[in-house]
């Protein structure tokens, strides 16, 4: 299937003269000036630094997400947007519009040509070639806008699912800015195409050199793009019409109408309640927090009342349950209700208790006596329905138990080390005292032995003297 001329990346340039000499009037000068203005608007948007920055950001995101994000639909939509941007670059639309600006006369040349009556303007083949470029760029911008909308929808859907929230925020903001820029390019192309057709009619009437023989140019971009993209071209007109209405002076109303309007406004106004403020900023904050606390504590919403009633009803059913089979039914109903009310903490606790209840139900069916366990389970279920205060010991998490056990073990080990150090010190002191005591005993025994030896020696000497004295010696 042959590709349309406007859908080609490189449209063949016509082998004909680029400029022709035509009669030049004030109307032709105005048409040329408007054409240059519209062409300059397109060039400003295509060459703008904002667009180049967003395109670089798109390339960086695709480079970073190339390996880990390939199977994602949002990534594929971003790749399609990248393909559209690359095709716009390969079309070299800015070079074609720059050539058009060079072929058109400037302001001084237009003034002199009006006096002379003739001037050089782009030829019919050149204008038709540029029209083909503009048609291809307009269709490409329409396709780019649809791809941006699809990528935005997919990224927003992922944000609702809470997947890659920060990344999707960056993608949605970038895609939104790209959509606005490309829509501005499409609107500028619409105005440029309209002015090209007007100048083309004048040139073709004076110097007819048709370049397109098998293709007729559409009368308007809205006709070329189709009904699905007409809204993208008509919103600008509605916006400008609204701006014109704002600029118009407001109509003066009669006095009676003013009075009725003021009365209605007074009836609808709600001035609220006066609040006494302090002198400093801290006083204002304190009064504000007190006021908020009184409102939050004094008034309960119907939703809170409904939740409290449902909790009381569940606790009553739990206390009346006679077996774990009945308890499982009640807990299952409460889990579904918590899920519908988006009560995440209560749902997690009750889900854990539901698993425990199923295990105890099997034991109860096997014939084991689980009445004591049932009473404990009732307390746990009542607390889980409204988790306030400290949790029961049987419902504490395994991690907290491990932490407490680890803390006790660590405390015992420290205590043991402290006791061992204290015991060693006491043993050293006892050893010193024992050695001192033994040393004192040895000293006393030694002195006693010397005293006895001296006494025995003196006694023996006295006895011998007495014997010799009795013998007369």
Structure description:
The chain has a two-stranded antiparallel ribbon with strand order 1-2. It is mainly alpha-helical and 473 residues long. The chain has 16 helices and two strands. The N and C termini lie far apart (169 Å). α4 runs antiparallel to α6 (124-160), α12 (302-320) runs antiparallel to α15 and α13 (324-340) packs antiparallel against α14. 75% of the residues lie in helices and 2% in strands. The radius of gyration is 50 Å and the shape is elongated.
Oligomer: single chain
What is the succession of H and E elements? EHHHHHEHHHHHHHHHHH
Give me the count of strands: 2
Mean pLDDT, all residues = 75
Give the strand order, joined by hyphens, for the main sheet.
1-2
In one word, what is the shape?
Answer: elongated
Quick summary:
With 473 residues, the protein is mostly helical.
Summary tags:
473 residues; mainly alpha; two-stranded antiparallel sheet; 16 helices; elongated
